[in-house]
Amino acid sequence: MAEEHRFQAQEGHRLCANNCGFFGSTATMNLCSKCYRDHCLKEQQQASIKTTVENSLSASPPSSSAPFLGSVPDPPALALPEVNGDKDADVAVVLEQQQQQPPQPNRCSVCRKRIGLTGFKCRCGTIFCGTHRYPEKHGCSFDFKKVGREEIARANPLIKAEKLEKI
């Protein structure tokens, strides 16, 4: 039965070959599970790098100006924005970009308490803590009645029947 499941009895506990403090096994080359996973990932990365280098060397035509065969191709150049001599215009552009990207709100708009990820976003567009999340607590400027009327009007369209002819 043990042969069917490829089960091996433990002969004794062996420490990991990397001396990380955990126990290793013969199935994982005397490495613990974390070190073995790292070892396998490193081997996979080396194999993928080797294949990409071989593919790039076979795809590119041989050139006599290359100093050695294992040269790595240059990375693509980054496109840099044009720089004008007008510093005021550059500052204005930066300010406009900052205004277009709203800052990450991490404080309650009423009490300025740090809220982190637990903030509540109101329909008026601001974020509040658990105490000020209700519209009546923070003086919400959102018109809930107007939105309710619009939803009811959209859900119940006005239907006018044709007038009956009097006899």
UniProtKB/TrEMBL annotation:
Segments for region (Disordered): 52-83
Keywords, alphabetical: Metal-binding, Zinc, Zinc-finger
Name this protein carries in UniProt: Zinc finger A20 and AN1 domain-containing stress-associated protein 4
Low complexity compositional bias, start-end: 56-67
Native source species: Citrus x changshan-huyou
Domain A20-type positions: 10-44
Single GO MF descriptor: zinc ion binding
Ranges for domain AN1-type: 102-148
Source superkingdom: Eukaryota
Alphabetical list of Pfam families matching this protein: zf-A20, zf-AN1
Annotated function: May be involved in environmental stress response.
